[in-house]
Each structure stands twice: as structure tokens, then as C-alpha cells.
Amino acid sequence: MPISWISSVDASADDGPPVLAVSRRTGAVRLTRRHRHGRGQLLGAMQGLLSVEAGGSRWVVPATHAVWIPPGVPHGARSHGPFAGWSVYVVPSACRDLPRQPCLLAVSGLLREAAARASSWTAGAPLDAAQLRVAGVILDEIRSSPHETLGLPMPRDERLLKIARALSDRPDDDRRLEEWAAWAAVAPRTLTRRFRVETGFSFTAWRQRVRLLRAMEMLAAGKAVTTVALDLGYDNVSAFIALFRRTFGVTPGRYLASG
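The structure corresponding to this sequence follows.
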């Protein structure tokens, strides 16, 4: 059975196995308040979107990617929908040649499978030679995985954050900007101005990007392009394909084939 929890002592231990991996599924939204620990952490979702804040950055992250958090960096996370996620905790001595700042990494199939294998190991037991080789693969993958700018910055204003979280939960929600503003008790002009200042995106562009992040996850899970477009609220499949290509440089069909 996969390990589903790690103690704060183990998460900060500077000895023991070079990596500790956990995976967990729940029927509820998971909120992890801001904290820090001595081991580095690679945090990702098996499905759905995660909001992760680490250091001074916040991202909305699809299941195709994960966030690397170096040792000692304050961080927190929230799932959008029922939580299904995984983490790898890396002993500080093994983090010396890993990224020094929080960053978003593309998760290869090899990294995902190696982390899943590690989460099945007996908690607290010394690693045998085969397990140490798997741990080495995980570290090599973290070290060599491409850094991405794919993540979506979250606003800091509580009213805008409320909207951003709601859209991350339901990217297909097609309420107009004025309706969102009324729902969050903020003036439409303030919403427009503050969204761009705090995220670097206009409200419309941010909403399009969160839909596309969910689309990437659905495509990676094998869903057809037309199904993805309709499920995310696009009336015109061609418009969805064009927007996907303009954003990621490849059509959804080609992305699906490459996955």
C-alpha cells in the first residue's frame, strides 16, 4: 500500500533514506497551510489542479507538472476538487545540485513511475540496492527536468483570489467579468486593473490559461480533443484548437500524440 503521510520529523530529517515518497487520494479538497521543513519537496497532482505557493511565488499547476520546493522554503498548497497527489522528500545533502529556487518542472513518465514505486516502500526501512537505484533515478529526473513557465500566477488580493480559486475549481464556468465582480464584491474596473497588476495577465487571458491547463491534463489522460473542448465550455472546437496552439506552440492533437 502506498505511503500516504509523512511526519514533520521525517520531512526535516537530514539523515535516513535519500528520498521519501508519499501518495494520497481523498474525497475532499485538501488545504495545506504554509509551513517549511528541512528536506526538499517535489509536489504534484495525480489528477486535477493544485494551487501551490512557495517562497514569493504562486502557481496553478496541472497534473502534467510538479513544483520543486528547496529545503527550508515556506510553502502551502490547495487542491481544486478532491485531492489526489504525491510528493517526494529529498534529504538536504542530496539537494545541493538541485534547483536552488522554487520552480515548476515537467514530470516525465519515468519520474512519475519512479515516485509511485518509492511510495510503495516500507516506511522507515533502509533502502536496498535496487531501491537506491530508483532513488537515484528520481534525483536525476529532478535535476534534468525542464523548468517551465507554464504555471499560472495567483492574485494576492483576497477578493481576486476567491475568483481565481473558483475558476480553478470549475474552469468551464462562463460567468462574465461583471458577474464575477459582483460575486466577489469588487468593482469591475478594480478587478480588471488589479488582476493584471497581480498576475501579469488580463482577467480574460488568465481564465483562458486556467482552462488550457486543465485541457493539458485531460489530453494527457487520453480524452479526445472534441470532448476536452466541450467539457471546458468551448462552443467552437476550432477556436479551442487555435487558442491551444497559440499558447503552447502545438495543436491539442499533436500534444495528445506526443503524450
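Residues 19 and 135 are 6 Å apart (CA to CA).
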